[in-house]
Amino acid sequence: MDLRFNDEERAFRQEVRDFIEANLPPETRERMAAGRTPTKDMVVQWQRALNAKGWAVPHWPVEHGGTGWSAIKRFILNEEMQQWPTPTPLAFNCAMVGPVICAFGTDAQKQHFLPRMKNLDDWWCQGFSEPGAGSDLASLKCASKREGDHFIVNGQKTWTTLAQHADWIFVLVRSNPAAAKPQEGISFLLVDMKSPGITVRPIITIDGAHEVNEVWFDDVKVPVENLVGTENKGWDCAKFLLSNERTGQARVGASKERIRRLKRIAAEAPGGATPMLANPRFRDKLTEVETQLKALEMTTLRVLANENKRLGEGKPDPASSVLKIRGTEIQQAISELFVEAAGPYGLVGADPEQDRWNEPELAPEWATLAQPVYFNWRKQSIYGGSNEIQRNIMAKAFLGL
Amino acid sequence: MDFDFSEEQRMLADSLGKLISDRYGFENRKAYAKQPEGWSREIWAAYAEMGILGLPFAEADGGFGGGAVETMIVAEALGGALGLEPWFATVVLGGGFLRHGADAGLRETLVPQVADGSLLLAFAHTEPNARFDLHHVETTATKDGDGWVLRGRKGVVLHGDVAGKLFVTARSAGGVRDEAGIGVFLVDAAASGLTRRGYATSDGLRAAEITLDGVRAEAVLGDAANGLPLVKRVVDDAIAALAAEAVGAMDASLKLTLEYLRTRKQFGRAIGSFQSLQHRAADMMVALEQARSMAMYAAMMTDEPDADERARAMHAVKLQMGRFQKFVGQQSIQLHGGIGMTMEYAVGHYFKRLTVIDTQFGDAEHHLAALSEAGGLFQAA
User: Where's the Acyl-CoA oxidase/dehydrogenase middle domain (chain A) (predicted)?
Assistant: First the structure.
C-alpha cells in the first residue's frame, strides 16, 4: 500500500497542465471559472483538441481509441480538467453511448460511430426518461414496431439534456409490450435527430436556462442496423450505461476548483464589518465541506484503484453509489455557500442565456450567478438515478437487505 | 498510488484477525474486563508473541520496522474487537515518544521491554483546565542539579494506572498557554512523589489521575523548553491510529446492525425490508466508507514532513471521523431498538467506544475550529 502519487503520476499531472494551458482558449476558461456553462463551440473545440492528443476517451478499449491508462491516470486527467476548469468531454458520447457501442455494438456501428463520437463530429443526447418513467425507468412506454428493415418509433422522451445541439439520440424503446417483465421488452436504438417526425421542445429550468428538452417521436423510421445489442435486450445496455455514469458524478476536481474560488471570493466579499471569510460561522461551514471533499477524494481513488482489478468482470463497484450520493451532496453544499457569500446581491437575476447582460456591471458576475447555479444544481441529487434510488441499490446489492 | 496490502501486511491482518476471532469474542471481552487490571495479561502476552507490540519500532532498536499502514491494520483489528489492552497507550503514544523523541540509548533500553510486553507506557498530558489545547501546560519542571523535578496534576491518563513509565509534559519556561517552554519528561511510575488514582472510563477502558509532587524525571526528551513539536508529532500518529480503530469499531457495529435488520421480525417481516431502515443503513455505509478513506488518508499523512500540512490533515481527519463515528454509533443503537440499549449486547459498547474516541485528542468541534483557523485544506484560487 502506497497512498502517494508516484513520480510517473506527478509527471503526468504536469504534462496534463501543460497541454491544457497550450490548447484551451482563455475565454473558455474565463467563462467557466465565472460559473457559466461553456458554449457548444467551446465544448467542441476542447474535445477535438483532446481527441487530437489521443485523450478524449482514455477509458474506452484500446482498439477503439482508449489509452490503456490506469484508473489513477484517468483520475488525474479528469481532476486537472475540472480544476482548470475546461469543458468536460461530452458525457453522452464518451461516458454513455460510446462504451455501450464498444461493448454491445456491431462492427459496422463501431466503425461508423465511434470515431465521430470521439471527435464530437456527432453530438449525442440521451433518450431514457419519460413523463411516466423516471426512477422507474423500466416502465417506459415510447414504442417501436418492426416494419421490414425499420423500426417505427412513437412516443415521448423528457429531460433530454442539450437535445437542441444534438445530431443523434440513443433511445430506450418498448419493442415488446407482451414481455413477461417490463425489463424484457426494451430495445436500445440509435436515432438520427434529423429523422422526419422528431420534435424537440425546450423545458426551461428554475434557473432560467434551456438545458433540457422534451423529444417527441411521431412515426420516426429507424433502420434496423441502428439497433444496439439484441432486440428486446436493451435493458442490459441501459444498466451497463447507468453504472458507468455514476463513477463520473463525484466530480472531485470540480468541487475543489469551486472551493478554491469561493475562498478567494469570500476573502473579499462584504460580510458586514469584515469579509465573509472572517465570519467564523461561514468559515466553519466551508471547512466542513472541504474536509468532506477530502474524504470523497480518497474514496474516489479507492474505487478507481479497485476498478482496475474489476476490469473484465464487467460489473461496477457498488461503492459507485457512495460516490454519487456524496459527490452530489457536496456540490450542492458548495453551491449553497456561494449563495450565502453573495448575500443581498445574489438576488440580482442573472440571465444564463444572455451574454453580456451584466454590462455595465450591476453586481459581480459570481454573485449574480450564485443563485442560478444553486437552483440548477438541485438536479444533481435527482439525475443519474436519484440519491434515494442509489440507497435502494446499496441496500439490495451491498447490504443484503 | 496503490491501495493493496503487501503479502506481509495481509499476513499481519490475517493472523491478528485469527487471534481475535479465536480469543476475543464479545463474551471473552466481558471476562477480560473483570480481571484485576481491567484487561487480559494473556492476550497482552499473545500480542507480544505475534510481534504486535514491537511492530512500529526500527529493527535496529529491537522492533520489526512496521510503518503507518501496519499500525492502521492493527488499530482497525483492535477497534473491531473493542480491545481493552493498553496497546494504544503503550505502543502508539509511549512508543511514539520513543520513536520520535528518545535518543538511541533510551530506545535501546526501553524498546525491547515494550516489544516483549514487560513494559507498559502512558502519556500524561491532559490537565484539568487544558481541555484539548496541547500547549496548555500548568505542570512545572524545575531544574535541580543535572535533572528536572516535576510538580502538577495530569488527568485522564489512558492506562496510567498500570504504566511502568510515563511520558509527562511539564513547563520549564513561559506562561501557562505559551507554545514555547514545554518539555517532555520520562518518569518512572514508582518514583517518589508520584501518586495515581485509577478508574474505569465510560467505554470500559482504564485511566488514571496522576499527581506529581516533586517527582524527579529520569530523562528529558530533547530540549526541555521546546517539546511541543514532538508532542504534536506523537498526537498526529495517535489521531491516525484512533481513526483506524474507529473504522474497525464502525465496521463491526454496522455488521451487527445489518445482521439484526435481516433477522429481527416485526409486522410479520424482517425489519430490514422497510425502506426507511434500508436508507438509514445505506447512509451508515456511506459514512463507513468515507471514514475508511479518512483513516487511509491519516496513515498516509503521518509521514508528511511538513508539520503544518500534517496538522491540517489530522484536523480534517479528526473532524470527519467525529461526524462519521457519531452517526454510525447512534444509528446502530437506533436500528437495534431496545436491545441496543443493554449492557449485555455488544452494539452499545461500540457506540461508547466511538463516543470516547471522538473526545480523545480533540473532538470534532475542536478540530473544526483549528482547521478553520489554519485556513482549511485547500488554498484559495
Answer: 125-220
Q: Which CATH number fits domain A124-234: 3.40.190.10, 2.40.40.10, 3.40.50.2300, 2.40.110.10?
A: 2.40.110.10
What's the Rg (C-alpha) of chain A?
22
| Cell triple for B273 | 425490508
ipTM of the complex: 0.95
Q: Which residues in chain B land under pLDDT 70?
A: none
Mean pLDDT of A121-128: 98
- Is domain A7-89 annotated with CATH 1.10.540.10? yes
Determine contact, residues B235/B203, Cβ cutoff 8 Å.
no
B262 touches chain A (CB under 8 A): yes
Nearest CA to CA, how far is B29 from chain A (Å)? 27
* Position B2 in a domain: no
Nearest partner of A98 among A61, A43, A47, A67, judged by Cα: A61
What pLDDT was estimated at residue B150? Answer: 98
Nearest CA in chain A to B257: A399
Determine the average pLDDT of the residues in A46-55: 98
Measured between beta carbons, which residues in chain B are less than 8 angstroms from residue A267?
Answer: 380
State the residue range of the domain holding B70: 7-118
B17, burial (CB in 10 Å: exposed 0-12, middle 13-18, buried 19+): middle
Instruction: Specify the pLDDT at position A318.
Output: 67
Cβ contact A305–B294 (<8 Å):
no
The residues in B 313-372 lying below 8 A from A, measured between CB atoms, are 315-316, 319-320, 368-369, 371-372
Taking contacts as CB-CB distances below 8 angstroms, the residues of chain A near B299 are 3
Q: How many CB atoms lie within 10 A of CB B55?
A: 21
Domain count, chain B: 3
Among the residue ranges A22-36, A107-121, A179-193, A344-358, the one predicted with the least confidence is A344-358
For residue A296 the three cell numbers come to 470523497
Mean pLDDT of the region A326-340: 97
